[in-house]
Amino acid sequence: MHIHILGICGTFMGSLAVLAKELGHRVTGSDANVYPPMSTQLEAQGIELMQGYEPAHLQPEPDLVVIGNALSRGNPAVEYVLNKGLPYVSGPQWLADHVLQGRWVLGVAGTHGKTTTTSMLAWVLEHAGMSPGFLIGGVPQNFGVSARLGGTPFFVVEADEYDSAFFDKRSKFVHYHPRTAILNNLEFDHADIFPDLASIERQFHHLVRTIPGEGLIIHPTSEEAIRRVLDMGCWTPVQTTGDGGQWQANLLAEDGSRFEVVFDGEVQGVVDWELSGRHNVANALATLAAARHVGVLPKQGAEALSLFKSVKRRMEKVAEVNGVTVYDDFAHHPTAIATTLDGLRKKVGDAPVIAIIEPRSNSMKLGAHRDGLPESVQQADQVIWYAPPNLGWDLGATAAACPVPAVVCDTLEAIIARVKGQVAPGTQVVIMSNGGFGGLHGKLAKALAI
C-alpha cells in the first residue's frame, strides 16, 4: 500500500512513517518545514520527503492519506484530498488500527516530560530483554530511532493530549487504550486548542475511562489537577510517586544524578546516570512503576536507567568549544524552562549560565504563558529572548520583568554577537525552542570556534 503523510516531519507523524515503512508500506510525505532530527531520520529510512503541500505530491494518488493535526481546511493538499475523495485518516487512528490492536500498550501522558519518560520506559523494557515496540516524539539516543514495531506484545507510546486532526478534535491519547498509564503532570498548555485547564482535565478523564480495571495508573502525589481528573471517576488500580507516594527517591546527589529508588518503604536499587534535575528523578520513578507492572524488577529497572542516554533535544550537549558548552533543549513552557535550568544549575554550580529562548509554540505565540516566563529563568545568569516576526505580544516587557539580566534580539546574528561578547571558558549556553531555531546551535558553535 502507498501511504502519503501530510505533516510528516512532526515528531509524531515522522515516527508513524517509520512504523508504516516497517509494516511494508511504501511511505512518502509532505511538510512545510523539513529539518533535523526528523528529516534526517526519515531520509535514512528511505522515506521520500517533499517540501510544501502541493496537490502534485498526491499524484499518482496514494492508497491512503494520513493527515497531521497541524493541517487545517484551506491547506491546498487537504482541499485536494477532500475534493478528490481520497481515503484519509488521522495519525492516532491509523496507529490504533494498524499497530496497537491486541497489544499491551504502555502510555505516557502529561504536560511535561512525556518524550523523556517514554524513552526511559522503552529502554528499561529493552534492557530487560522484552523487545518492546515504541512511538516517541523524539529520537532516544539509546535506540537512534523514534519508533519501531518491536518483537513482543508490549508497545510504549507517548500519549499526547493535543488534538488528533482537523476532523477529529479528541486528544490523540483517547485512541490508544493503554493498559499501563503514566499521568506525569498536568498544567495549562495548547492554548490554541483548549480554553482552560478544566477542558484539558476533561480530556485526561476521557483517557482514564479507557484504561482497563486490570490495568494500572501511575501519577505523582503532588499533582492536584490529576487528582481532580481521578475524582471524576477511576476504575483502575493506582500507584503514586513522590513525597508520600509508594515510589520515592532518596537523592544521593543534589542534582539528581544519583539516587536510591524506594518502593513501599524498601530500597530497590540505585540509579547513577547522565541526567540531572528533580523532574527527571520523578520521570524515573514513574518509569520504574510502569515497568514493574509488566514484570521488570525495580532493581533491574534502576540498572537500565543507569545506562540511559536521554533523548535528542532534551538537554542534549551539541558542542563544547573553547571551554563553552552548548545545549539544545525542547523546553517551551515556563515550568519546563524552570525545571531544565534548575537541573543545570545544580549540575554546574556557580558556572555562568546563558539561556537563549525562542517563544515558538502556539501557546507561546498566543501569549498564554507570558506571565510565568520572567520567573522561569531565575536560575540563569542572563537570558536572550528571540522575537520571531509573528509574535503577537511585547517580549520586551517580559525581558524587563526578568529577575536576571535579559535582552531581546530579533536576528540570529544579534544573538550570536551577544553570546560571543559574554562567554568565557566554563560558560553553559542553553538554547530552548520546539523548532529548528534557524540552525542557531550549529551557527553559534561555529562562531565560538573563531
UniProtKB/TrEMBL annotation:
Give all residue intervals belonging to the Mur ligase central domain. Answer: 108-291
Tell me the Gene3D superfamilies matching this sequence. Answer: Mur ligase, C-terminal domain (3.90.190.20), Mur-like, catalytic domain (3.40.1190.10), NAD(P)-binding Rossmann-like Domain (3.40.50.720)
Q: According to its UniProt record, which cofactors does this protein need? A: Mg(2+)
Identify the InterPro entries for this entry.
Mpl, Mur-like_cat_sf, Mur_ligase_C, Mur_ligase_C_dom_sf, Mur_ligase_cen, Mur_ligase_N, MurCDEF_pg_biosynth
Is Lipid metabolism included in the keywords of this UniProt record? no
Q: Which reaction does this chain catalyze?
A: UDP-N-acetyl-alpha-D-muramate + L-alanyl-gamma-D-glutamyl-meso-2,6-diaminopimelate + ATP = UDP-N-acetyl-alpha-D-muramoyl-L-alanyl-gamma-D-glutamyl-meso-2,6-diaminopimelate + ADP + phosphate + H(+)
Would you kindly state one Gene Ontology biological process term found in this protein's UniProt entry? cell wall organization
Instruction: Give the family from UniProt.
Output: Belongs to the MurCDEF family. Mpl subfamily.
User: What name appears for this protein in its UniProt entry?
Assistant: UDP-N-acetylmuramate--L-alanyl-gamma-D-glutamyl-meso-2,6-diaminoheptandioate ligase
Give the source species: Pseudomonas indica
Taxon lineage: Bacteria, Pseudomonadati, Pseudomonadota, Gammaproteobacteria, Pseudomonadales
